[in-house]
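User: Sequence recovery, please. Input:
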């Protein structure tokens, strides 16, 4: 790890007894970062660069929910770098056995490559090498990325040049707030059969329905099932990679929802916390990104679960 200190760079090595940070057990990776903070003092920012085959869904929850890091470090966001020239080939061609993501036996459908996972978990997608593809190819890449992840902000670059760091790579605040625009006009696309983005409309929630909403989310994220349904109701086998939502409550407050895989958080906000854009909002939205979402009755199931 390279640390910038008073204009100079300092090399720091973190020993992980069980391999790389992505594959090591939680305590090892967290302890390494905590040790670094203790010995070097305050950090402005820590950027973890994973390998091209890393699954961000395994790494992100470590820094989002760990109590030991909560006071000094939080997960700001996940950035995925996409090669404009080769990404469509990576997504379309059959994956080599070693690059196919392992799935539960019950999760039917196409195998997911690491490229699908890295895009689906991203809060920001950087499409690089735009200078080596024509306009038509670039539009196909952008459309494909949007079809997989309708929530991510997309930036196009040439030679890896970023016009500014703040708001693009740094200071994203992707997990401690939900902007109204992020849950507006998001729908699923059929451009990619593996992963899609789906928006669910949520009616004005009464305070006593909050627990029912949380129970519904637990079923989706923890068990990959729609509550009160059976196999006869339709083949399920879906997987949720990312969830984000903003729910309006009848008492004037709101609920923000953030989730990665089976880890999620519901943040209660008062009227003053909703912001001017959300004060008049009379209904909410939940956006799901995942595998096997198309064709399942998420909307109807949620309404039935809320009662």
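Assistant: Recovered sequence (307 residues):
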């Amino acid at each position: 790890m390279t640390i910038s200190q008073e204009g100079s760079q300092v090399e720091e090595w973190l020993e992980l007894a069980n391999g790389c940070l992505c594959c090591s057990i939680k305590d090892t990776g967290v302890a390494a970062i905590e040790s670094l903070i203790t010995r070097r003092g305050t950090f402005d920012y820590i950027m973890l660069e994973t390998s091209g085959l890393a699954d961000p869904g395994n790494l992100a929850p470590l820094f989002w929910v760990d109590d030991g890091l909560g006071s000094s470090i939080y997960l700001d966001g996940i950035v995925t770098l996409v090669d404009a020239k080769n990404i469509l080939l990576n997504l379309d061609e059959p994956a080599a056995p070693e690059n196919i993501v392992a799935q539960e036996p019950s999760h039917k459908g196409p195998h997911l490559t690491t490229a699908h996972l890295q895009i689906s978990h991203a809060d920001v997608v950087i499409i690089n090498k735009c200078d080596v593809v024509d306009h038509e190819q670039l539009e196909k890449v952008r459309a494909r990325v949007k079809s997989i992840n309708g929530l991510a902000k997309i930036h196009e670059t040439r030679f890896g040049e970023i016009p500014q760091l703040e708001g693009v790579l740094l200071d994203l605040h992707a997990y401690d707030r939900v902007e109204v625009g992020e849950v507006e006009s998001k729908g699923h696309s059929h451009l990619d059969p593996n992963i899609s983005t789906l928006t669910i409309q949520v009616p004005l929630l009464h305070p006593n329905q909050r627990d029912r909403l949380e129970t519904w989310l637990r079923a989706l994220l923890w068990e990959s099932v729609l509550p009160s349904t059976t196999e006869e109701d339709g083949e399920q086998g879906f997987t949720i990679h990312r969830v984000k939502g903003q729910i309006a409550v009848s008492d004037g407050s709101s609920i923000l929802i953030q989730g990665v895989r089976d880890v999620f958080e519901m943040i209660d906000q008062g009227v003053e916390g909703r912001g001017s854009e959300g004060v008049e909002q009379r209904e909410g939205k939940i956006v799901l990104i995942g595998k096997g979402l198309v064709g399942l009755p998420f909307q109807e199931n949620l309404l039935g679960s809320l009662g």
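Helices lie at 26-40, 56-65, 67-70, 87-92, 114-120, 135-148, 210-223, 298-306.
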